[in-house]
Structures are given as structure tokens and as C-alpha cells.
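Input.
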Amino acid sequence: MTYFAARAYRRTRARPIGALALGFGIVTFGTMLSGVADQVLRVEMAWVLVVETALTTAGFLVILYSLYAE
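Output.
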């Protein structure tokens, strides 16, 4: 989804689609970062969940913004 949203933004330069791509990118980054922190860096699970939840929430807020942006 992130790839296709970013591709659509590059093609159209529409601001809402750019925000959608950014939101999906934040959610994807949060998921990947939490996986690396848990599996590779051996960070405590509570911190991994806090970071993942924060980035997921931020990503979904940006996605929500993209629904109402003009």
C-alpha cells in the first residue's frame, strides 16, 4: 500500500494522496522498527509496544488527515 500510494502521489502530486502515502509509510516504519528492536536489539517488550503504538497512532492520524485534506 505504501508503495502504490507513493507512486500515485508522484504521478498526480495531489496533496491528500501524499499524506496518505506518508501515513502508510509511518505505520510501515513503526512495524519494521518494532520488529528490529524486539528481534535484533533485544529491547524490552514494553518499550517496543510503546514505540509501535505511538508510530501506528501517528500514521493513522496522518491517514485520517488525508481523508479531509483538499
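DSSP finds three helices and no strands in the chain.
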